[in-house]
Write a structure and sequence with these properties.
The chain has about 220 residues and is an alpha/beta fold. The protein has 8 helices and 7 strands; from the N terminus they run E-H-E-H-E-H-E-H-H-E-H-E-E-H-H. It has a single domain, classed as HUPs (Rossmann fold, 3-Layer(aba) Sandwich). Strands 3-2-1-4-5-7-6 form a 7-stranded mixed β-sheet, sandwiched between helices. The longest helix is centred in the N-terminal third of the chain and has 13 residues. The chain binds adenosine-5'-triphosphate (ATP).
Length: about 220
């Protein structure tokens, strides 16, 4: 089995996340995508909504896609959510499974600041997805990659939309250029705070959940 792991704060989940996951699933031939909302993230703490709300919004958003699933592996842990611990636990739950850790260019570049990064990159394959305002070319500074500049440039220019190589750990990393959707959770939170509409930026069920639970008002 090939499982895509898509972690994040999902504060809230929106169509940028959902479409990227769907394209990663299709292009990499993944059997399913497991969305893992972080419970108590060590780095992104500002303006963070309670994990129970973020979990519920992801649950509602993925319910209509039978290739999508949600895991409470991080939300049910009271301690800090470290991707390394999550991956180790998933490996026990799903033996004989190849994992593909899906994340945006910005998040991949942040890995050196995570808990036990060297160990993490030995545990799983990665799928680095494009994200508006971020360039594949910036990945040249990643300590885990040794890649030709021209490949990254082709990905940014659109001459190439998928490229797989090896990380320094020997695991595979795939760069995927997908349909750009320039929506950000930060922007959605400000829209709500300013009383603006968030319609069509995220699934209607998530919009209703935000309104009825009065999230992001202050
Ligand atoms: P915030 O604005 O709250 O910082 P975020 O979307 O950057 O939100 P997460 O919810 O943790 O934060 O993101 C989960 C993953 O989705 C990250 O790897 C991020 O790079 C990626 N991502 C977020 N928005 C998009 C988008 N519009 N297109 C592609 N990838 C995205």
């Amino acid at each position: 089995m090939r499982i895509g792991i898509f972690g994040g704060t999902f504060n809230p989940i929106h169509y940028g996340h959902l479409r990227a996951a769907e394209e990663a699933r299709e292009r990499l031939n993944l059997d399913k995508i497991l969305f893992i909302p972080s419970g108590n993230p060590p780095l992104k703490t500002e303006g963070l909504t309670d994990a129970k709300h973020r979990y519920e919004m992801v649950r509602l958003a993925v319910a209509q896609n039978h290739f999508f699933d949600i895991s409470d592996i991080e939300c049910r842990r009271p301690e800090k959510s470290y991707s390394m611990d999550t991956l180790e636990e998933l490996k026990c739950i799903y033996p004989d499974t190849a994992f593909f850790f899906i994340l945006g260019i910005d998040s991949f570049l942040d890995i050196p600041n995570w808990w036990q990064p060297e160990r993490l990159i030995e545990l799983t394959n990665f799928v680095v997805i494009s994200r508006p305002s971020f360039n594949f070319f910036d990945l040249l500074s990643s300590p885990y990659l040794s890649i030709d500049k021209s490949i990254l440039k082709k990905l940014d220019d659109g001459a190439l939309d998928l490229y797989t190589t090896k990380l320094s750990s020997g695991k595979a990393v795939t760069f995927l250029r997908h349909t750009p959707i320039g929506i950000s959770a930060t922007e959605i939170r400000s829209f709500v705070r300013e009383g603006k509409s968030i319609k069509y930026l995220l699934p209607a069920v998530v919009e209703s959940y935000i309104i009825s639970n009065k999230l992001y008002k202050s």
